[in-house]
Specification:
By secondary structure, the protein is mainly β. Helices cover 6% and strands 34% of the residues. It is built from 1 helix and 16 strands. It has one helix at residues 232-247, and strands at 32-36, 57-59, 63-64, 69-72, 77-83, 89-97, 109-112, 122-125, 130-138, 143-151, 157-163, 177-180, 185-188, 196-197, 203-206, 217-226.
Length: 253
Amino acid sequence: MATPMLELTTGAVAIMPRAGRLTLPGTLATGLEFLHILAAGVDPSLRNWADGKPNATKVGAPVAGAGFLTLRSGVDYLKTGLLDVAGDRTYLVVGRDVSGGAAGAARFAWIGSAVGQSGGANLYTLDGTSIRYNVPYSNAGGEVNSSAVLPIPKVFNCLIMTAAQVGLTSTAADNPTLYNMTTGVSAVGSLNDGYARVANGQPVIIGGFSGTAFGGVGDEALAMCWSRVLTDAERVAAYAWAKALVATKSIAV
């Protein structure tokens, strides 16, 4: 039997890039599309620890730091094997903004599948003080953006973003939501009944989007994606798992 890459039940946590597989707690393996450990270094970060899912490819020259990769949007980033073809979505990212760009090409694209600024579900630096999680939706009558905005992390934080494929008036749990698990704050975008998320068929990129509309710099230690909306309890469990992982590299979130 292959040795699990991470063992949390005994309190021992270690990064073992050559392990056969990875064991996640509870139900966190369900719907997992990718799990890339950027804390392990440039080449090891390309491995996708989600069972049966394709690895990422390196674009440009990401730089390995002390438990993270430094990425420059549009130049140096990781292109995952996941194409955004619709469906519910949860992202988890442990990272920080480095350049703090206030506009245009100086802003950092954290994760997403946008072409320029269109389509997908995307987290990016909005200005010198804020990050924005933006998810386009359509009701067969044009595209509208549902966005959630929080203060920009200048130190490592754990961020979780969720969005449902179709809006339901009976609950706000489907609305695009940005959680900063480190600081305990969140923001929720609006979503009307029946509106469907606009998927563009593009690859999800860690540290960039397709095109060169963004060119800022950021550091990321971990990136994950599920094809479903995690429950409240699952978000807490995912945060605890991520926190324990990056702590092995002396990163506190």
